[in-house]
Amino acid sequence: MASKGVFLLKTLREPVILVGTILLCLIFLAIIAAPVLAPYDPLETDVKNRLQGPSLQHLLGTDELGRDVLSRLLFGGRISISIGVISVLIGLSVGGIIGLLSGYYKALDLVLMRFVDFLMAFPYILRSMVIMAILGIGLRNVMIAVGIGGIPIFARLFRSLVLQLRKELYVEATKALGAKDFRILLRHILPNAAAPIIAYASLTMATSILSAATLSFLGLGVQPPMAEWGDMAAYGRWYLMSAPHLVIFPALAIAIVVLCLNLVGDGLRDLFDPRLRK
Amino acid sequence: MIPTVFGILFAGFLVIYLTPGDPALMMAGQDAPPEVVENIRQQWGLNEPFTVQFGKYMGNLMRGNLGRSMTSGWEVAEELRRTLPRTLELVLVATLWSVLIGVPLGTISAVKRGTVVDRVSTLIAVIGVSLPVFFIGLMLMWLFAFELKVFPMGSYGGPLWTLKGWRHIALPSLTLGMFSTASLARVTRSTMLDVLGQDYIRTARAKGLAKNKVVYRHALKNALIPVVTLIGINMARLIGGSVVTETIFSWPGVGRMMIMGLTSQDIPVIQGCLLAKGLMVAVLNLVVDVTYTFVDPRIKLSQGGI
User: Is residue B250 less than 8 Å (CB to CB) from chain A?
Assistant: First the structure.
Protein backbone atom coordinates (compact mmCIF):
# COMPACT_ATOMS: atom_id res chain seq x y z
CA MET A 1 0.00 0.00 0.00
CA ALA A 2 2.84 2.33 0.87
CA SER A 3 4.31 2.01 -2.62
CA LYS A 4 1.01 3.00 -4.15
CA GLY A 5 0.90 6.13 -2.04
CA VAL A 6 4.44 7.04 -3.01
CA PHE A 7 3.62 6.48 -6.65
CA LEU A 8 0.55 8.69 -6.46
CA LEU A 9 2.62 11.44 -4.84
CA LYS A 10 5.29 11.11 -7.52
CA THR A 11 2.65 11.31 -10.23
CA LEU A 12 1.06 14.40 -8.79
CA ARG A 13 4.41 16.10 -8.37
CA GLU A 14 4.64 16.43 -12.16
CA PRO A 15 3.12 19.90 -12.60
CA VAL A 16 1.66 19.11 -16.03
CA ILE A 17 -0.21 16.06 -14.76
CA LEU A 18 -1.33 17.93 -11.66
CA VAL A 19 -2.76 20.89 -13.57
CA GLY A 20 -4.43 18.60 -16.10
CA THR A 21 -5.98 16.45 -13.39
CA ILE A 22 -7.27 19.41 -11.39
CA LEU A 23 -8.84 21.01 -14.47
CA LEU A 24 -10.44 17.72 -15.50
CA CYS A 25 -11.83 17.24 -11.99
CA LEU A 26 -13.30 20.75 -12.02
CA ILE A 27 -14.93 20.18 -15.40
CA PHE A 28 -16.28 16.84 -14.23
CA LEU A 29 -17.75 18.42 -11.11
CA ALA A 30 -19.30 21.26 -13.10
CA ILE A 31 -20.93 18.81 -15.46
CA ILE A 32 -22.25 16.58 -12.69
CA ALA A 33 -23.63 19.63 -10.92
CA ALA A 34 -25.13 20.99 -14.15
CA PRO A 35 -28.74 21.10 -12.84
CA VAL A 36 -27.56 23.25 -9.91
CA LEU A 37 -25.03 25.40 -11.74
CA ALA A 38 -26.89 26.02 -14.98
CA PRO A 39 -28.63 29.40 -14.78
CA TYR A 40 -31.34 28.44 -17.31
CA ASP A 41 -33.10 25.42 -18.74
CA PRO A 42 -30.87 24.28 -21.65
CA LEU A 43 -33.89 23.63 -23.87
CA GLU A 44 -35.88 26.77 -22.99
CA THR A 45 -36.13 29.04 -26.02
CA ASP A 46 -36.40 32.81 -25.89
CA VAL A 47 -36.60 34.06 -29.44
CA LYS A 48 -36.65 37.73 -28.42
CA ASN A 49 -33.10 37.42 -27.05
CA ARG A 50 -31.61 35.23 -29.74
CA LEU A 51 -27.97 35.33 -30.92
CA GLN A 52 -26.85 37.67 -28.15
CA GLY A 53 -23.22 37.94 -27.19
CA PRO A 54 -21.98 37.31 -23.66
CA SER A 55 -23.66 39.55 -21.10
CA LEU A 56 -24.46 39.56 -17.38
CA GLN A 57 -27.81 37.83 -17.93
CA HIS A 58 -26.32 35.23 -20.24
CA LEU A 59 -22.64 34.78 -19.33
CA LEU A 60 -21.79 33.05 -22.59
CA GLY A 61 -24.58 34.55 -24.69
CA THR A 62 -27.57 32.91 -26.36
CA ASP A 63 -27.93 30.72 -29.44
CA GLU A 64 -30.12 30.93 -32.54
CA LEU A 65 -33.25 30.08 -30.53
CA GLY A 66 -32.36 32.24 -27.54
CA ARG A 67 -31.23 29.30 -25.43
CA ASP A 68 -28.56 30.00 -22.82
CA VAL A 69 -25.17 28.83 -24.15
CA LEU A 70 -23.64 28.28 -20.69
CA SER A 71 -26.48 26.00 -19.61
CA ARG A 72 -26.31 24.10 -22.86
CA LEU A 73 -22.55 23.71 -22.48
CA LEU A 74 -22.95 22.30 -18.96
CA PHE A 75 -25.66 19.84 -19.96
CA GLY A 76 -24.03 19.09 -23.32
CA GLY A 77 -20.80 18.22 -21.55
CA ARG A 78 -22.58 15.32 -19.90
CA ILE A 79 -23.24 13.80 -23.30
CA SER A 80 -19.88 14.69 -24.85
CA ILE A 81 -17.87 13.31 -21.96
CA SER A 82 -20.00 10.20 -21.49
CA ILE A 83 -19.48 9.40 -25.18
CA GLY A 84 -15.75 9.63 -24.53
CA VAL A 85 -15.86 7.50 -21.40
CA ILE A 86 -18.21 4.82 -22.75
CA SER A 87 -16.45 4.48 -26.08
CA VAL A 88 -13.07 4.14 -24.35
CA LEU A 89 -14.59 1.46 -22.10
CA ILE A 90 -15.83 -0.41 -25.18
CA GLY A 91 -12.44 -0.18 -26.88
CA LEU A 92 -10.57 -0.99 -23.69
CA SER A 93 -12.61 -4.07 -22.79
CA VAL A 94 -12.91 -5.62 -26.25
CA GLY A 95 -9.44 -4.60 -27.36
CA GLY A 96 -8.04 -5.62 -23.99
CA ILE A 97 -9.47 -9.13 -24.19
CA ILE A 98 -8.21 -9.53 -27.76
CA GLY A 99 -4.77 -8.27 -26.77
CA LEU A 100 -4.50 -10.40 -23.63
CA LEU A 101 -5.49 -13.57 -25.48
CA SER A 102 -3.33 -13.01 -28.53
CA GLY A 103 -0.34 -12.06 -26.42
CA TYR A 104 -0.67 -15.11 -24.21
CA TYR A 105 -1.79 -17.83 -26.61
CA LYS A 106 0.37 -18.09 -29.71
CA ALA A 107 -2.28 -20.15 -31.49
CA LEU A 108 -4.83 -17.33 -31.25
CA ASP A 109 -2.34 -14.62 -32.08
CA LEU A 110 -2.41 -15.03 -35.84
CA VAL A 111 -6.21 -15.06 -36.13
CA LEU A 112 -6.83 -12.19 -33.71
CA MET A 113 -4.11 -9.99 -35.11
CA ARG A 114 -5.47 -10.45 -38.63
CA PHE A 115 -8.77 -9.11 -37.33
CA VAL A 116 -6.96 -6.15 -35.77
CA ASP A 117 -5.05 -5.55 -39.02
CA PHE A 118 -8.38 -5.52 -40.80
CA LEU A 119 -9.63 -2.79 -38.47
CA MET A 120 -6.34 -0.91 -38.83
CA ALA A 121 -6.75 -0.82 -42.62
CA PHE A 122 -8.94 2.22 -42.08
CA PRO A 123 -7.83 5.42 -40.37
CA TYR A 124 -9.59 6.12 -37.05
CA ILE A 125 -12.33 8.43 -38.27
CA LEU A 126 -12.99 6.34 -41.39
CA ARG A 127 -13.21 3.22 -39.20
CA SER A 128 -15.92 4.89 -37.14
CA MET A 129 -17.73 6.00 -40.27
CA VAL A 130 -17.84 2.47 -41.69
CA ILE A 131 -19.59 1.42 -38.52
CA MET A 132 -21.90 4.45 -38.64
CA ALA A 133 -22.79 3.41 -42.18
CA ILE A 134 -23.80 -0.04 -40.99
CA LEU A 135 -25.53 0.99 -37.75
CA GLY A 136 -27.14 4.22 -38.91
CA ILE A 137 -27.18 7.67 -37.36
CA GLY A 138 -27.65 8.32 -33.64
CA LEU A 139 -26.01 8.98 -30.29
CA ARG A 140 -25.75 5.34 -29.20
CA ASN A 141 -24.25 4.37 -32.54
CA VAL A 142 -21.64 7.13 -32.24
CA MET A 143 -20.49 5.60 -28.96
CA ILE A 144 -20.29 2.13 -30.47
CA ALA A 145 -18.59 3.38 -33.63
CA VAL A 146 -15.97 5.42 -31.78
CA GLY A 147 -15.51 2.55 -29.31
CA ILE A 148 -14.90 -0.02 -32.02
CA GLY A 149 -12.56 2.51 -33.62
CA GLY A 150 -10.38 2.28 -30.49
CA ILE A 151 -10.25 -1.54 -30.36
CA PRO A 152 -7.09 -2.02 -32.45
CA ILE A 153 -5.17 0.56 -30.40
CA PHE A 154 -5.86 -1.26 -27.13
CA ALA A 155 -5.48 -4.73 -28.64
CA ARG A 156 -1.98 -3.87 -29.81
CA LEU A 157 -1.04 -2.23 -26.53
CA PHE A 158 -2.27 -5.14 -24.39
CA ARG A 159 -0.61 -7.66 -26.66
CA SER A 160 2.78 -5.98 -26.49
CA LEU A 161 2.51 -5.64 -22.70
CA VAL A 162 1.61 -9.31 -22.27
CA LEU A 163 4.43 -10.40 -24.58
CA GLN A 164 6.79 -8.36 -22.45
CA LEU A 165 5.46 -9.40 -19.04
CA ARG A 166 4.98 -13.12 -19.65
CA LYS A 167 8.76 -13.50 -19.70
CA GLU A 168 9.09 -11.97 -16.23
CA LEU A 169 10.38 -14.22 -13.50
CA TYR A 170 7.36 -13.80 -11.25
CA VAL A 171 5.02 -14.92 -14.01
CA GLU A 172 7.07 -18.03 -14.63
CA ALA A 173 7.25 -18.67 -10.92
CA THR A 174 3.46 -18.49 -10.60
CA LYS A 175 3.15 -20.82 -13.54
CA ALA A 176 5.58 -23.25 -11.89
CA LEU A 177 3.42 -23.12 -8.77
CA GLY A 178 0.56 -24.40 -10.88
CA ALA A 179 -1.59 -21.30 -11.30
CA LYS A 180 -4.16 -21.40 -14.08
CA ASP A 181 -3.67 -19.22 -17.18
CA PHE A 182 -6.73 -17.17 -16.32
CA ARG A 183 -5.35 -16.36 -12.88
CA ILE A 184 -1.92 -15.49 -14.23
CA LEU A 185 -3.44 -13.12 -16.79
CA LEU A 186 -5.82 -11.37 -14.45
CA ARG A 187 -3.94 -11.35 -11.15
CA HIS A 188 -0.32 -11.10 -12.24
CA ILE A 189 0.00 -9.69 -15.74
CA LEU A 190 -2.90 -7.23 -15.83
CA PRO A 191 -2.05 -5.28 -12.63
CA ASN A 192 1.52 -4.83 -13.80
CA ALA A 193 0.36 -3.53 -17.14
CA ALA A 194 -2.04 -1.05 -15.54
CA ALA A 195 0.18 2.03 -15.65
CA PRO A 196 0.75 2.27 -19.42
CA ILE A 197 -2.85 1.25 -20.00
CA ILE A 198 -4.09 4.21 -17.96
CA ALA A 199 -1.81 6.54 -19.92
CA TYR A 200 -3.10 5.24 -23.24
CA ALA A 201 -6.71 5.25 -22.05
CA SER A 202 -6.32 8.94 -21.28
CA LEU A 203 -4.82 9.67 -24.71
CA THR A 204 -7.46 7.57 -26.45
CA MET A 205 -10.24 9.30 -24.55
CA ALA A 206 -8.96 12.58 -25.96
CA THR A 207 -9.14 11.15 -29.48
CA SER A 208 -12.56 9.63 -28.78
CA ILE A 209 -14.05 12.91 -27.56
CA LEU A 210 -12.64 14.67 -30.62
CA SER A 211 -13.99 12.04 -33.04
CA ALA A 212 -17.36 11.91 -31.33
CA ALA A 213 -17.61 15.70 -31.51
CA THR A 214 -16.56 15.51 -35.15
CA LEU A 215 -19.22 12.91 -35.95
CA SER A 216 -21.83 15.04 -34.18
CA PHE A 217 -20.57 18.10 -36.01
CA LEU A 218 -21.17 16.24 -39.26
CA GLY A 219 -24.75 15.60 -38.17
CA LEU A 220 -24.35 11.88 -37.53
CA GLY A 221 -24.73 11.91 -33.76
CA VAL A 222 -27.02 13.69 -31.34
CA GLN A 223 -30.34 14.76 -32.79
CA PRO A 224 -31.84 18.14 -31.80
CA PRO A 225 -32.90 19.62 -29.44
CA MET A 226 -30.40 17.78 -27.22
CA ALA A 227 -27.19 19.67 -26.60
CA GLU A 228 -23.77 18.21 -27.37
CA TRP A 229 -20.59 20.20 -27.88
CA GLY A 230 -19.85 19.10 -31.44
CA ASP A 231 -23.48 19.51 -32.40
CA MET A 232 -23.68 22.99 -30.83
CA ALA A 233 -20.69 24.07 -32.92
CA ALA A 234 -22.33 22.60 -36.00
CA TYR A 235 -25.42 24.75 -35.57
CA GLY A 236 -23.39 27.77 -34.52
CA ARG A 237 -21.51 27.47 -37.78
CA TRP A 238 -24.41 29.01 -39.69
CA TYR A 239 -24.16 32.15 -37.53
CA LEU A 240 -20.38 32.41 -37.70
CA MET A 241 -20.50 35.95 -39.06
CA SER A 242 -23.03 37.44 -36.65
CA ALA A 243 -22.42 35.33 -33.52
CA PRO A 244 -19.01 33.62 -33.57
CA HIS A 245 -19.36 32.83 -29.85
CA LEU A 246 -21.72 29.97 -30.79
CA VAL A 247 -18.77 28.16 -32.34
CA ILE A 248 -16.00 29.42 -30.09
CA PHE A 249 -17.40 28.34 -26.70
CA PRO A 250 -18.34 24.73 -27.52
CA ALA A 251 -15.09 24.26 -29.45
CA LEU A 252 -13.09 25.71 -26.56
CA ALA A 253 -14.85 23.34 -24.17
CA ILE A 254 -13.85 20.38 -26.34
CA ALA A 255 -10.32 21.72 -26.77
CA ILE A 256 -9.79 22.23 -23.02
CA VAL A 257 -10.97 18.73 -22.12
CA VAL A 258 -8.92 17.16 -24.92
CA LEU A 259 -5.87 19.24 -24.03
CA CYS A 260 -6.07 18.18 -20.37
CA LEU A 261 -6.47 14.52 -21.31
CA ASN A 262 -3.50 14.80 -23.69
CA LEU A 263 -1.36 16.50 -21.04
CA VAL A 264 -2.20 13.90 -18.40
CA GLY A 265 -1.76 11.02 -20.83
CA ASP A 266 1.54 12.35 -22.20
CA GLY A 267 2.80 13.07 -18.69
CA LEU A 268 1.90 9.59 -17.44
CA ARG A 269 3.45 7.94 -20.47
CA ASP A 270 6.69 9.85 -20.02
CA LEU A 271 6.70 8.85 -16.37
CA PHE A 272 6.15 5.16 -17.07
CA ASP A 273 8.40 4.83 -20.08
CA PRO A 274 11.95 4.86 -18.74
CA ARG A 275 13.34 5.48 -22.22
CA LEU A 276 11.66 8.87 -22.37
CA ARG A 277 12.83 9.94 -18.92
CA LYS A 278 15.36 12.71 -19.15
CA MET B 1 -1.14 -5.37 -48.90
CA ILE B 2 -3.34 -8.03 -50.51
CA PRO B 3 -5.11 -9.00 -47.26
CA THR B 4 -5.68 -5.31 -46.55
CA VAL B 5 -7.25 -4.69 -49.94
CA PHE B 6 -9.39 -7.77 -49.50
CA GLY B 7 -10.41 -6.51 -46.05
CA ILE B 8 -11.45 -3.15 -47.49
CA LEU B 9 -13.48 -4.79 -50.25
CA PHE B 10 -15.07 -7.05 -47.65
CA ALA B 11 -15.95 -4.06 -45.45
CA GLY B 12 -17.62 -2.46 -48.44
CA PHE B 13 -19.65 -5.63 -48.88
CA LEU B 14 -20.57 -5.73 -45.20
CA VAL B 15 -22.06 -2.24 -45.47
CA ILE B 16 -24.67 -3.62 -47.86
CA TYR B 17 -25.05 -7.01 -46.21
CA LEU B 18 -25.46 -5.82 -42.63
CA THR B 19 -27.53 -2.70 -43.16
CA PRO B 20 -31.01 -3.26 -41.77
CA GLY B 21 -33.81 -3.11 -44.30
CA ASP B 22 -34.01 -4.24 -47.90
CA PRO B 23 -30.89 -3.02 -49.73
CA ALA B 24 -32.47 -3.50 -53.13
CA LEU B 25 -35.38 -1.28 -52.19
CA MET B 26 -32.97 1.25 -50.71
CA MET B 27 -30.83 1.28 -53.84
CA ALA B 28 -33.82 1.66 -56.10
CA GLY B 29 -35.49 4.30 -53.95
CA GLN B 30 -38.65 4.02 -51.87
CA ASP B 31 -41.14 4.47 -54.70
CA ALA B 32 -39.38 2.49 -57.40
CA PRO B 33 -41.48 0.07 -59.48
CA PRO B 34 -41.21 -3.57 -58.30
CA GLU B 35 -39.48 -4.75 -61.48
CA VAL B 36 -36.64 -2.23 -60.93
CA VAL B 37 -36.20 -3.51 -57.38
CA GLU B 38 -36.25 -7.08 -58.65
CA ASN B 39 -33.70 -6.17 -61.31
CA ILE B 40 -31.30 -4.80 -58.69
CA ARG B 41 -31.88 -7.83 -56.54
CA GLN B 42 -30.91 -10.02 -59.50
CA GLN B 43 -27.90 -7.92 -60.43
CA TRP B 44 -26.43 -7.93 -56.89
CA GLY B 45 -27.67 -11.45 -56.18
CA LEU B 46 -29.48 -10.40 -53.03
CA ASN B 47 -31.60 -13.57 -52.91
CA GLU B 48 -28.57 -15.82 -53.04
CA PRO B 49 -26.51 -17.20 -50.13
CA PHE B 50 -23.72 -15.14 -48.55
CA THR B 51 -20.86 -16.52 -50.65
CA VAL B 52 -22.65 -16.12 -53.97
CA GLN B 53 -23.62 -12.57 -52.99
CA PHE B 54 -20.01 -11.78 -52.23
CA GLY B 55 -18.95 -13.29 -55.58
CA LYS B 56 -21.47 -11.14 -57.46
CA TYR B 57 -20.40 -8.07 -55.54
CA MET B 58 -16.75 -8.68 -56.45
CA GLY B 59 -17.78 -9.28 -60.07
CA ASN B 60 -19.61 -5.95 -60.16
CA LEU B 61 -16.58 -4.23 -58.65
CA MET B 62 -14.20 -5.73 -61.19
CA ARG B 63 -16.35 -4.34 -63.94
CA GLY B 64 -16.21 -0.95 -62.25
CA ASN B 65 -19.90 -1.05 -61.43
CA LEU B 66 -20.53 0.63 -58.09
CA GLY B 67 -24.23 1.13 -58.58
CA ARG B 68 -26.20 4.35 -58.78
CA SER B 69 -26.77 6.95 -56.10
CA MET B 70 -30.22 6.60 -54.54
CA THR B 71 -30.69 10.33 -54.20
CA SER B 72 -29.19 11.79 -57.38
CA GLY B 73 -29.37 8.75 -59.66
CA TRP B 74 -25.82 9.32 -60.90
CA GLU B 75 -23.34 6.51 -61.41
CA VAL B 76 -21.24 6.29 -58.24
CA ALA B 77 -18.10 5.36 -60.19
CA GLU B 78 -18.59 8.39 -62.42
CA GLU B 79 -19.03 10.70 -59.45
CA LEU B 80 -15.96 9.26 -57.74
CA ARG B 81 -13.91 9.96 -60.83
CA ARG B 82 -14.83 13.61 -60.33
CA THR B 83 -14.38 13.83 -56.56
CA LEU B 84 -11.31 11.66 -56.02
CA PRO B 85 -8.78 14.01 -57.68
CA ARG B 86 -10.13 16.92 -55.58
CA THR B 87 -9.53 15.03 -52.33
CA LEU B 88 -6.06 13.93 -53.44
CA GLU B 89 -5.21 17.52 -54.34
CA LEU B 90 -6.33 18.72 -50.93
CA VAL B 91 -4.42 15.99 -49.08
CA LEU B 92 -1.23 16.65 -51.06
CA VAL B 93 -1.27 20.40 -50.44
CA ALA B 94 -2.07 19.83 -46.76
CA THR B 95 0.90 17.48 -46.51
CA LEU B 96 3.07 20.07 -48.24
CA TRP B 97 2.19 22.64 -45.55
CA SER B 98 2.80 20.19 -42.75
CA VAL B 99 6.28 19.39 -44.05
CA LEU B 100 7.16 23.01 -44.82
CA ILE B 101 6.01 24.24 -41.41
CA GLY B 102 6.20 21.25 -39.10
CA VAL B 103 9.74 20.02 -39.78
CA PRO B 104 11.49 23.42 -39.45
CA LEU B 105 9.44 24.22 -36.35
CA GLY B 106 10.47 20.95 -34.71
CA THR B 107 14.10 21.38 -35.72
CA ILE B 108 14.34 24.90 -34.37
CA SER B 109 12.76 23.98 -31.07
CA ALA B 110 15.12 20.99 -30.70
CA VAL B 111 18.20 23.10 -31.41
CA LYS B 112 17.02 25.92 -29.16
CA ARG B 113 15.77 23.50 -26.52
CA GLY B 114 14.46 25.10 -23.36
CA THR B 115 14.33 28.63 -24.79
CA VAL B 116 11.22 30.71 -25.35
CA VAL B 117 11.18 29.67 -29.02
CA ASP B 118 11.01 26.02 -27.97
CA ARG B 119 8.29 26.61 -25.42
CA VAL B 120 6.12 28.61 -27.79
CA SER B 121 6.40 26.11 -30.63
CA THR B 122 5.75 23.17 -28.29
CA LEU B 123 2.69 24.95 -26.99
CA ILE B 124 1.46 25.60 -30.53
CA ALA B 125 2.02 21.93 -31.35
CA VAL B 126 0.07 20.71 -28.32
CA ILE B 127 -2.79 23.08 -29.07
CA GLY B 128 -2.77 22.05 -32.73
CA VAL B 129 -3.24 18.42 -31.71
CA SER B 130 -6.03 19.22 -29.26
CA LEU B 131 -8.21 21.63 -31.22
CA PRO B 132 -11.07 20.10 -33.17
CA VAL B 133 -10.50 20.36 -36.92
CA PHE B 134 -13.84 22.07 -37.46
CA PHE B 135 -12.87 24.79 -34.99
CA ILE B 136 -9.60 25.52 -36.80
CA GLY B 137 -11.45 25.52 -40.10
CA LEU B 138 -14.24 27.82 -38.95
CA MET B 139 -11.82 30.23 -37.26
CA LEU B 140 -9.59 30.46 -40.35
CA MET B 141 -12.69 31.01 -42.41
CA TRP B 142 -13.96 33.70 -40.07
CA LEU B 143 -10.62 35.52 -39.91
CA PHE B 144 -9.31 35.25 -43.48
CA ALA B 145 -12.47 34.95 -45.50
CA PHE B 146 -14.89 37.09 -43.55
CA GLU B 147 -12.94 39.67 -41.55
CA LEU B 148 -9.85 40.19 -43.74
CA LYS B 149 -11.40 38.98 -47.03
CA VAL B 150 -8.04 37.69 -48.34
CA PHE B 151 -9.25 34.23 -49.27
CA PRO B 152 -12.59 32.95 -50.60
CA MET B 153 -15.03 31.20 -48.27
CA GLY B 154 -14.58 27.84 -49.90
CA SER B 155 -15.46 25.67 -52.92
CA TYR B 156 -13.14 24.54 -55.65
CA GLY B 157 -11.32 27.27 -57.57
CA GLY B 158 -9.57 25.43 -60.38
CA PRO B 159 -6.35 23.52 -61.00
CA LEU B 160 -3.25 24.19 -58.92
CA TRP B 161 -1.37 25.93 -61.69
CA THR B 162 -3.76 28.85 -61.54
CA LEU B 163 -3.70 31.55 -58.88
CA LYS B 164 -7.42 31.13 -58.31
CA GLY B 165 -6.93 27.44 -57.55
CA TRP B 166 -4.34 28.27 -54.88
CA ARG B 167 -6.48 30.99 -53.34
CA HIS B 168 -9.35 28.53 -52.98
CA ILE B 169 -7.28 25.64 -51.65
CA ALA B 170 -5.33 27.78 -49.14
CA LEU B 171 -7.77 27.71 -46.22
CA PRO B 172 -9.02 24.12 -46.60
CA SER B 173 -5.50 22.73 -46.94
CA LEU B 174 -4.19 24.71 -43.96
CA THR B 175 -7.12 23.45 -41.89
CA LEU B 176 -6.61 19.86 -42.94
CA GLY B 177 -2.85 20.09 -42.46
CA MET B 178 -2.95 21.63 -38.99
CA PHE B 179 -2.99 18.33 -37.12
CA SER B 180 -0.15 16.80 -39.14
CA THR B 181 1.86 20.01 -38.88
CA ALA B 182 1.59 19.85 -35.11
CA SER B 183 2.35 16.16 -34.86
CA LEU B 184 5.29 16.45 -37.30
CA ALA B 185 6.71 19.29 -35.23
CA ARG B 186 6.46 17.20 -32.07
CA VAL B 187 8.08 14.12 -33.58
CA THR B 188 10.81 16.10 -35.35
CA ARG B 189 11.64 17.79 -32.08
CA SER B 190 11.92 14.58 -30.07
CA THR B 191 13.92 12.65 -32.68
CA MET B 192 16.20 15.64 -33.25
CA LEU B 193 16.86 15.78 -29.51
CA ASP B 194 17.66 12.07 -29.62
CA VAL B 195 20.03 12.44 -32.54
CA LEU B 196 21.72 15.57 -31.21
CA GLY B 197 22.77 13.58 -28.16
CA GLN B 198 24.55 10.92 -30.25
CA ASP B 199 28.29 10.41 -30.29
CA TYR B 200 28.73 11.12 -33.99
CA ILE B 201 27.25 14.57 -33.56
CA ARG B 202 29.80 15.32 -30.85
CA THR B 203 32.52 13.98 -33.15
CA ALA B 204 31.37 16.20 -35.98
CA ARG B 205 31.39 19.21 -33.69
CA ALA B 206 34.78 18.19 -32.26
CA LYS B 207 36.40 18.03 -35.65
CA GLY B 208 35.47 21.67 -36.03
CA LEU B 209 32.37 21.69 -38.21
CA ALA B 210 30.10 24.68 -37.87
CA LYS B 211 27.06 24.10 -35.68
CA ASN B 212 24.61 24.82 -38.48
CA LYS B 213 26.32 22.36 -40.75
CA VAL B 214 26.17 19.67 -38.08
CA VAL B 215 22.51 20.32 -37.43
CA TYR B 216 21.37 20.33 -41.02
CA ARG B 217 23.84 17.93 -42.64
CA HIS B 218 24.28 15.32 -39.93
CA ALA B 219 21.48 15.50 -37.43
CA LEU B 220 18.46 16.33 -39.56
CA LYS B 221 19.26 13.64 -42.11
CA ASN B 222 19.22 10.99 -39.42
CA ALA B 223 16.22 12.39 -37.63
CA LEU B 224 14.16 12.29 -40.81
CA ILE B 225 13.60 8.51 -40.77
CA PRO B 226 10.72 8.46 -38.29
CA VAL B 227 9.51 11.74 -39.75
CA VAL B 228 9.09 10.18 -43.19
CA THR B 229 7.01 7.36 -41.73
CA LEU B 230 4.89 9.84 -39.85
CA ILE B 231 4.27 11.80 -43.04
CA GLY B 232 2.85 8.62 -44.54
CA ILE B 233 0.73 7.81 -41.50
CA ASN B 234 -0.51 11.39 -41.44
CA MET B 235 -1.48 11.30 -45.10
CA ALA B 236 -3.59 8.22 -44.40
CA ARG B 237 -5.17 10.13 -41.52
CA LEU B 238 -5.80 13.12 -43.79
CA ILE B 239 -7.58 10.95 -46.34
CA GLY B 240 -9.88 9.83 -43.53
CA GLY B 241 -10.13 13.27 -41.94
CA SER B 242 -10.74 15.25 -45.11
CA VAL B 243 -14.45 14.66 -44.49
CA VAL B 244 -14.76 17.54 -42.00
CA THR B 245 -12.65 20.01 -43.94
CA GLU B 246 -14.51 19.27 -47.15
CA THR B 247 -17.84 19.77 -45.42
CA ILE B 248 -16.88 23.12 -43.92
CA PHE B 249 -15.37 24.57 -47.07
CA SER B 250 -17.85 22.94 -49.50
CA TRP B 251 -14.92 21.22 -51.16
CA PRO B 252 -16.25 18.84 -53.85
CA GLY B 253 -14.26 15.77 -52.71
CA VAL B 254 -14.92 12.21 -51.64
CA GLY B 255 -15.38 13.17 -47.97
CA ARG B 256 -18.25 15.54 -48.65
CA MET B 257 -19.81 13.00 -50.99
CA MET B 258 -19.55 10.42 -48.21
CA ILE B 259 -21.20 12.64 -45.63
CA MET B 260 -24.05 13.40 -47.97
CA GLY B 261 -24.38 9.65 -48.50
CA LEU B 262 -24.28 8.92 -44.78
CA THR B 263 -26.91 11.48 -43.81
CA SER B 264 -29.31 10.25 -46.49
CA GLN B 265 -28.44 6.55 -45.99
CA ASP B 266 -27.42 6.36 -49.64
CA ILE B 267 -25.83 2.88 -49.54
CA PRO B 268 -24.12 2.78 -52.96
CA VAL B 269 -22.54 6.20 -52.37
CA ILE B 270 -21.30 5.26 -48.88
CA GLN B 271 -19.89 2.03 -50.20
CA GLY B 272 -18.16 3.68 -53.15
CA CYS B 273 -16.58 6.39 -50.99
CA LEU B 274 -15.48 3.80 -48.46
CA LEU B 275 -13.79 1.71 -51.13
CA ALA B 276 -12.16 4.78 -52.68
CA LYS B 277 -10.80 6.03 -49.36
CA GLY B 278 -9.78 2.59 -48.14
CA LEU B 279 -7.90 1.79 -51.33
CA MET B 280 -6.15 5.17 -51.27
CA VAL B 281 -4.93 4.42 -47.76
CA ALA B 282 -3.81 0.91 -48.75
CA VAL B 283 -1.79 2.18 -51.71
CA LEU B 284 -0.32 4.90 -49.53
CA ASN B 285 0.76 2.38 -46.89
CA LEU B 286 2.55 0.38 -49.57
CA VAL B 287 4.33 3.50 -50.80
CA VAL B 288 5.36 4.34 -47.22
CA ASP B 289 6.76 0.84 -46.68
CA VAL B 290 8.79 1.10 -49.86
CA THR B 291 10.12 4.60 -49.14
CA TYR B 292 11.04 3.43 -45.69
CA THR B 293 13.56 0.98 -47.08
CA PHE B 294 14.98 3.72 -49.30
CA VAL B 295 15.39 6.17 -46.45
CA ASP B 296 16.86 3.62 -44.09
CA PRO B 297 18.55 0.70 -45.83
CA ARG B 298 18.87 -1.08 -42.49
CA ILE B 299 15.19 -1.92 -42.57
CA LYS B 300 14.01 -4.73 -44.80
CA LEU B 301 10.40 -4.97 -45.89
CA SER B 302 9.93 -8.26 -44.07
CA GLN B 303 10.54 -6.50 -40.78
CA GLY B 304 8.78 -3.34 -41.85
CA GLY B 305 5.39 -4.37 -40.46
CA ILE B 306 4.25 -2.46 -37.43
Answer: no
